[in-house]
């Protein structure tokens, strides 16, 4: 039996679905910043570590990350440190591939000036020009062509989803790590690396309409790459079941963290909020179509080994058609009621700012220590937000003034008045700087008291 997957070559589905292993071929997916929790047991250690990480942009990962974000200065800094402009990830995708995909013209020009190969081939034999063409980044196409770029695959070629063969994954020792509405999630080894295998139960995957909807979502997810987005790795095919692999995040969900720790200290809450906002900004600024998550909740935010947060589960997301000025009509009660924007609950047209609303409620929970309205049923909470304009309390003792202002703007009843994630990031960075400054002053004051004594 053969199955066709998103334009990829046909493969034989595994007889024994999950007893698979393949030799390691690439750089570790998870090794970008392996700081253990135990190394970061205080917020100050954590923020020092964070600054160290930010300063450490001279890594190959820094070049790829800056290129995908369109951060020209960052790219310049990394290249000046001597990083090879043709450094690639485990799929042999270079900084030029990433910048070409996203349409970052200036970064493309800079990389070419610094000697990047315009015709480097990724795992699927695609050049940066193939990617620029697929995403209709015409200006980037012209620049690449002027530098001798060619496209061996052609404009209409689709980026194939990764085919994961049974030999690649070792499910012998699989460990159940969770269960969601679509099926179980296991910790398994793929090419010797720990990854999460998400299984979609047969009752869902065997329905061709739902299966196709899922495949479309995975096809979208496969194209997304950002340090604050959980990395999709590939799909394992089977006639009735659907199993896909993502990066494994060992510290669980933000929901688990809040349940265990309760209220976070303000500096941690702000740096977590920045992680989420950066991931969401990447989704909303994605070209050629913005990605609306639509189900942003603490359960869909996971923490990696270096304590950074990443957004996951685009099962309910939709590609926002930029030409559709009226946004989407909601078809049903998708998403979690507790984090649902009023316009979604009222089944009105909606846009990217529904995610900003959900983000505000998540940020509120980080300061509060969980949902402030735990006693009420989620649907009742959403109803009150939509029809009575009710919002969680903002006590001055808990919420710094600027955080309060940000939350009020983000959960504004009028979606057009909510800030974009780009604006949210700037405001959060401002708040973070002020917090660092305050801490520095307190430490200095404590030091001078010590010396007087
Ligand atoms: N990449 C991952 N790394 C580590 N643990 C994960 C990963 N993905 C999921 N999990 C764990 O598995 C659980 C179930 O995840 P899943 O995404 O299937 O469902 P959910 O988001 O909790 O709920 P729903 O399916 O309703 O959205 C999560 O709560 C989390 O504990």
From TrEMBL:
Annotated InterPro entries: Ankyrin_rpt, Ankyrin_rpt-contain_sf, Kinase-like_dom_sf, Prot_kinase_dom, Protein_kinase_ATP_BS, Ser-Thr/Tyr_kinase_cat_dom, Ser/Thr_Kinases-Pseudokinases
UniProt entry tagged with the keyword Transferase: yes
CDD domains assigned to the protein according to its UniProt record, in alphabetical order: STKc_MAP3K-like (cd13999)
Keyword terms, alphabetized: ANK repeat, ATP-binding, Coiled coil, Kinase, Nucleotide-binding, Signal, Transferase
Database matches in Pfam families: Ank_2, PK_Tyr_Ser-Thr
GO molecular function, one term: protein serine/threonine kinase activity
ANK repeat residue numbers: 91-123
Superkingdom of origin organism: Eukaryota
Binding site for ATP: 198
Claim: Transferase is one of the keywords in the record: yes
Chain ranges of the Protein kinase domain: 171-431
Sections of the chain in a coiled coil: 421-448
Family recorded in the similarity comment: Belongs to the protein kinase superfamily. TKL Ser/Thr protein kinase family.
Stated name of the protein: Protein kinase domain-containing protein
């Amino acid at each position: 039996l053969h199955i066709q997957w998103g334009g990829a070559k046909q493969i034989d589905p595994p007889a024994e679905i999950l007893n698979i292993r393949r030799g390691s071929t690439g750089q570790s997916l998870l090794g970008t910043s392996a700081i253990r929790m135990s190394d970061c047991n205080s917020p100050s250690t954590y923020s020092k570590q964070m600054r160290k990480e930010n300063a450490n942009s001279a890594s190959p990962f820094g070049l790829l990350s800056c290129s995908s974000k369109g951060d020209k200065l960052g790219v310049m800094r990394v290249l000046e440190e001597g990083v090879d402009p043709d450094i690639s990830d485990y799929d042999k995708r270079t900084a030029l591939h990433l910048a070409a995909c996203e349409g970052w013209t200036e970064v493309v020009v800079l990389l070419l000036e610094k000697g990047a190969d315009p015709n480097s081939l990724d795992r699927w034999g695609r050049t940066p020009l193939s990617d620029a063409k697929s995403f209709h980044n015409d200006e980037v196409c012209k620049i690449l062509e002027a530098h001798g770029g060619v496209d061996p695959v052609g404009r209409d070629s689709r980026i194939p989803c990764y085919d994961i063969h049974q030999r690649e994954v070792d499910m012998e020792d699989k460990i159940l790590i969770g269960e969601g509405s679509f099926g179980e999630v296991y910790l398994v080894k793929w090419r010797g690396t720990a990854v999460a295998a998400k299984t979609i139960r047969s009752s869902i995957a065997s329905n061709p309409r739902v299966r196709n909807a899922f495949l479309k979502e995975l096809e979208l997810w496969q194209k997304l790459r950002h340090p604050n987005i959980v990395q999709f790795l590939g799909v394992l095919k089977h006639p009735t079941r659907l199993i896909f692999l993502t990066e494994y995040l060992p510290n669980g969900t933000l929901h688990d963290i809040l349940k265990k720790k309760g209220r976070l200290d303000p500096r941690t809450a702000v740096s977590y909020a920045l992680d989420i906002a950066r991931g969401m900004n990447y989704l909303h600024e994605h070209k050629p179509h913005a990605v609306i998550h639509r189900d942003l909740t603490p359960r869909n935010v996971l923490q990696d080994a270096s304590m950074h947060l990443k957004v996951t589960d685009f099962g309910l997301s939709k590609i926002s058609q930029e030409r559709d000025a009226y946004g989407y009509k909601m078809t049903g009660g998708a998403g979690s009621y507790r984090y649902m924007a009023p316009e979604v609950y009222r089944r009105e047209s909606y846009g990217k700012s529904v995610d900003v609303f959900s983000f505000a409620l998540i940020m509120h929970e980080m300061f509060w220590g969980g949902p402030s309205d735990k006693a009420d049923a989620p649907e009742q909470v959403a109803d009150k937000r939509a029809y009575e304009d009710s919002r969680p309390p903002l006590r001055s003792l808990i919420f710094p003034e600027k955080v309060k202002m940000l939350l009020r703007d983000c959960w504004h009843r009028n979606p057009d008045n909510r800030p974009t994630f780009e604006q949210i990031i700037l405001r959060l960075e401002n708040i973070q700087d002020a917090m660092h400054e305050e801490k520095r002053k307190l430490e200095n004051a404590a030091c001078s008291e010590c010396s007087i004594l």
